[in-house]
Amino acid sequence: MSSTGQLDLLRTEYLALQQRCEETQRLYESLRVGLSEEQTAQAEAAESLIGQLVAFTRKLLETHIYSDIVFLLDDKSLKSHRFLLSCRSALWRNLTDCNELTIEGISLLIFPLLFGIRLILNSDVSYSTFLLIYRWLYTDEIDLNCDDNLLIEIAQAALRYKLTGLSNRCISNLLSRLNSSNCVSIYELAEREQIEVLRTSCATIVAEQWDRFTATDFAKLSAPLLYRLLKGHSKNLLHAIVELARDDVLFLFFMEFDKKLAEVVNETTSNGESPLELSLRLGYTNIAKQLVEKGAVVDLRDAEDNTSCPSKVLPIYYFSFPGNVAGADFLARHGANLKATNSRTGFTLLHHAAESIQERNEVAQWIEIMKDRVSINDKDNNGRSALALSILRENADLFFSLLRLHADTNIQDSEERTPLYLALFEKENANFVRELIGHEANVNAVVQRKPLICHAADMEYPDDSLRIVTLLIEQKANVNLPNVSDNKTALHIALDRKTNEIVQTLLESGAAVDVKDSEGETSLHKAVRAGELFTQIIVNHAKDIDCSVKNKNGTTALRLALNAKDYASASLLVKGIHSGADVFEKGRHGRSLLYEAIEENDDATAVFLLNNGGIDEESGPESWLEMASKRGLTQTVKTLCSSGISINVRTQSGKGYTVLKGVLEKGHYECAKLLVHFGIDLDSWTETEDGEQTQTLLHLMMDLGNQQAAIFLIENGCDVNAKKKYRKEEDDDFSSPVHMAVAWGQTEVLKALVKAGANLNVQDSDGRTACHVAVREKHHDALKELLAAEDVTFVSMRDKFGHTTLSQAIANRDHESANLIVNRVPHAALQTNGNGENLLHVAVKSGDLEGVLFLLATHVDVSAVTSDSSRRTALHLAAVGTNEMITRNLVGLFLLF
């Protein structure tokens, strides 16, 4: 519920309570005379004096018996009784002997009748109103739930006829219904009848709710009465009078303050508004004229001692209100200084005119009329001219008027903005722009260290940017003016922002492509940074552009493109320009682009340079192939090999080997595969640094323990049986790669060698096969790999000491190796030596119990005899021996059979 609705509800409740209070009062009066409400109703039956009088009086209202007086009003008559009137009002207690009675200026003519007297009421009370009072006289009852005007009329009559009970009820009821809409008429009654309580309450409402009142509300109030009301309850008396537009009340004010008018007519409200300002704001020109005649100031007023009252200049102040032209014109005609300035804002009359919202056309016309009295080019505290402000406020009327008055179109504000800048970028108003340029606005003005064309190119939205760039170009703006701060031109900025349409427009309008910014970059650098599309645009437009220009970091456009991996742009630079970018250019350290690309492992860039002829004859200590292959740059290696270069050239860094050595050492096997594909020498026989031997790459990798590299060589077809070549024969141990793999424990390499078909029967200088070496070194994994070969004839081969691999294992008491051999070659245990003895015979003769037991466990034939003339069995040999345990085991075995 709104606050107004709540107030109405409260007022209704109050009136109901008041009515109940009045009823209670009436009952109280009855009690005072000893009569209850019920007794009053039954008074006549009870035949008491008081009851009969009350009942009889009520009946007189209807019957009019015993009437002895007649009221004449509006040509109508009402019979009444003098005894009742005498009781109700002191005014009518002396009606018996008089013929005429005057009541506060109202003439009551009284003359005798046959049965009484006639009372003529010459008053302004209507018959209908008096009828309500007449009924109250007899019944003490009246309905006051009527409109305000009727209640006021009843109250006025009750007061006039001194009907105290009724007047008190009316006053109480009026107090309860007081509000802003009726308080003025009630106040008039209170003043006329001197009702202090009503007068105070009405004045309080007027003071508290002054803003709700209009001049119409007080129109019927007399000047003296209204003046007393305002004077007693207004904070700013003169302002209140001005707001009501009452010349008669203003006259009373002037009369009272005649001796200090010059002071009071210039007093201000808490908001700093003077009576003259108020009158002009409200359009009360006649009152304003009277104020000026009495000394109101029409010029500068400064209220520096009151922070709530900003400094103002009256003529310009009125352009903030509707109807402002009339106010300003009034002040101008009364001598106001139209060149005055607001000390707080620096605004002149024209600045306020620019900010005006209504009547813009009238304001502009008035300014042109006052052209000789105003300052066209004055600035406010922000350095803005009125022309600039009219652009910001889009006040076209004043804008065109100021141009007709030859306003300066190039004044810069405190932010260095010109009117043209504001029209272009703050408001984007093409009409303003064309008019300004037509009135000598500088299209090449530098604003905030940046030309207008650069501002246009640097706008957030490309469409807006293109539109303004095009507009400036149409107006002959210099497209090559650079920024003061970074020396960037509009073309640089457009390329930075990647706005291709603007780039095209600028180039077609003569934008220079060779201008350097503060970083030393030309448009070509910027285009490369922006991408292929923009590089294409620049290259197409400027075929003779110099590609060798370097920025502060010593970087050319080509190098920028390569660094960004933008090979499309790089290709345009190399092939799309007449002179072409130099693919052989050197960096700060004198290194070529190709060298730097390979050194930085940039495979794609190196390939681009090779495909575009960027290879020179010398790369340094290492060849291009060696540099690329060591870094695993497969595409570069492929490109180099495809170009037909010799890939088997021995390298200095590879210590005489081919580039394959470095590739394998770095683990670049994809690159190694490429080299193999193109026919690299897998053996690469090379003399060692000491010159004592010559070896293959396989020997080297195995010596270095690089099994993966060795396996790669083996799997790709290197010579798996190649032996090292020694300068001195006595140093040659005749070891093959298989011997080396076993000796070094390189099981995976051995596996690859076996798989590749390496010769396993090769013997070293001691007649040992690789299997002998495996048994001797107890390399069981290596032995397993060897025994897994298809051809195991090496098992029966003897070294120069007469040992087979099995006898060597038994001699070393390496039963695991022996077991592996016997399992793979069961007949190995039956082999005999030069004396015709097999391994069991030898073990028995040597007293090797463990060897005997091992051989017995392999189910060797214990009955086998020696192949010499003695033809002895193992038991025979044990019998002549000294090891009883051997004999027992052999005897036990014989008994089983």
Automatic annotation (TrEMBL):
<feature type="repeat" description="ANK">
    <location>
        <begin position="693"/>
        <end position="725"/>
    </location>
</feature>
<dbReference type="InterPro" id="IPR049765">
    <property type="entry name" value="ANFY1_BTB_POZ"/>
</dbReference>
<keyword id="KW-0677">Repeat</keyword>
<dbReference type="InterPro" id="IPR036770">
    <property type="entry name" value="Ankyrin_rpt-contain_sf"/>
</dbReference>
<dbReference type="InterPro" id="IPR000210">
    <property type="entry name" value="BTB/POZ_dom"/>
</dbReference>
<dbReference type="InterPro" id="IPR011333">
    <property type="entry name" value="SKP1/BTB/POZ_sf"/>
</dbReference>
<dbReference type="InterPro" id="IPR051165">
    <property type="entry name" value="Multifunctional_ANK_Repeat"/>
</dbReference>
<feature type="repeat" description="ANK">
    <location>
        <begin position="271"/>
        <end position="303"/>
    </location>
</feature>
<feature type="repeat" description="ANK">
    <location>
        <begin position="733"/>
        <end position="765"/>
    </location>
</feature>
<dbReference type="InterPro" id="IPR002110">
    <property type="entry name" value="Ankyrin_rpt"/>
</dbReference>
<dbReference type="Pfam" id="PF12796">
    <property type="entry name" value="Ank_2"/>
</dbReference>
<keyword id="KW-0040">ANK repeat</keyword>
<feature type="repeat" description="ANK">
    <location>
        <begin position="486"/>
        <end position="518"/>
    </location>
</feature>
<feature type="repeat" description="ANK">
    <location>
        <begin position="835"/>
        <end position="867"/>
    </location>
</feature>
<feature type="domain" description="BTB">
    <location>
        <begin position="67"/>
        <end position="146"/>
    </location>
</feature>
<protein>
    <recommendedName>
        <fullName>BTB domain-containing protein</fullName>
    </recommendedName>
</protein>
<dbReference type="InterPro" id="IPR049763">
    <property type="entry name" value="ANKFY1_BACK"/>
</dbReference>
<dbReference type="Pfam" id="PF00651">
    <property type="entry name" value="BTB"/>
</dbReference>
